[in-house]
Amino acid sequence: MSKLLIERLAIIGVGLIGGSLARALRRAGAVGHITGIGRGRKNLERALELGVVDSWTQDIAAGVKDADMVLIAVPMGMYDGVFGTMADHLKNGCIVTDAGSTKQHAIDVAGRHLVNPALFVPAHPIAGTEQSGVEASFAELYTGRTCILTPNDSTDPEALDLVERVWQTAGSHVVQMDATTHDDLLAGVSHLPHVAAFALVNAVRGQQTGAYDPFAFAAGGFRDFTRIASSNPQMWRDIALCNRDALLKKIDALLTELTGLRDAVDRRDAEALLDEFSAAKEARDRWLREHGGSV
Q1: Which residues contact 245 (CB under 8 A, 6 or more apart)?
Q2: If DSSP states are collapsed to H, E and C, what string results for the chain?
Q3: Per-residue pLDDT tens digits for 141-183
Q4: What topology is assigned to 6-177 in CATH?
Q5: pLDDT tens string 7-26
């Protein structure tokens, strides 16, 4: 029996996320023809050379016109332009999905532009690296990872089922929740850590002196904590702004924790510091035991 799920797939944004899904579906024999769409000609040409796509174009309208499914894998700040450009060129019945990190924003944009927003199935694969571009993509990126779908009451059931099977075929464990819950959860466990990593690197960068470069003395702890500060700045700028309200609450929570730690250090309160550090260690160790340190 054929495993083919999609005859013609168009991917807008053939980078780590879009390229890895293309590779995974092609490996599974689940897709017929993949059209890559993007702004960077060099990246698109490389995607064709690597066999990630079968054809490519920089013209969104031309790229989506024959597609049975379109995957949007671009920074959140580009959603309005992408959805607005493609909306009138989708064939009847074309399913649209995405891989963005803020789901309410994606739903709002789809509702503004698509003729049939019921065929939009918002998705967020919880996977990635700090690398970008099609060269960074690999078929195993989603294996064993969680992909969150955030349908609403108007989402077409058949479209939802197909998008769920697509991500399962790529190796993901698929869960569903509402967009507001998703955005609040991810603001804490994904968006806040990136903001904190950027802030820490900049805090150290601002302390450089003429005599010594502090980065020259950084070791494993600094490297591990700040790895995600090498992520795409444009993408994370867009995520921060699109999930503004939820992220602000998480930043405030972190500031409260840091203020408490600062006060304990200032007071030389060893017991308070030990309590806080021990509670954090216990929580992280429990996460590792129960979830293996990933979703």
Answers
A1: none
A2: CCCCCEEEEEEECCCHHHHHHHHHHHHCCCEEEEEEECCCHHHHHHHHHCCCCCEEECCHHHHHCCCCEEEECCCHHHHHHHHHHHHHHCCCCCEEEECCCCHHHHHHHHHHHCCCHHHEECEEECCCCCCCCHHHCCCCCCCCCEEEECCCCCCCHHHHHHHHHHHHHCCCEEEECCHHHHHHHHHHHHHHHHHHHHHHHHHHHCCCCCCCCHHHHCCHHHHHHHHHHHCCHHHHHHHHHHCHHHHHHHHHHHHHHHHHHHHHHHHCCHHHHHHHHHHHHHHHHHHHHHHCCCC
A3: 999 999 999 999 999 999 999 999 999 999 999 999 999 999 9
A4: Rossmann fold (3.40.50)
A5: 999 999 999 999 999 999 99
State which amino acid sits at residue 142. Answer: Y
**Residue 184 near residue 242 (C-beta atoms within 8 A):** no
Tokens encoding 202: 């900049």
| CB-based contact 56:45 (threshold 8 Å) | yes
CA–CA distances in Å: residue 66 to residues 3, 7, 63, 86, 275: 21, 10, 7, 12, 60
Determine the CATH number of domain 181-291: 1.10.3660.10
CA distance 194 to 229: 6
- Return the residue matching tokens 């999609």: 6
Entry pTM: 0.89
Six-digit token string for 266? 């200032």
CATH 3.40.50.720 spans which residues of the chain? 6-177
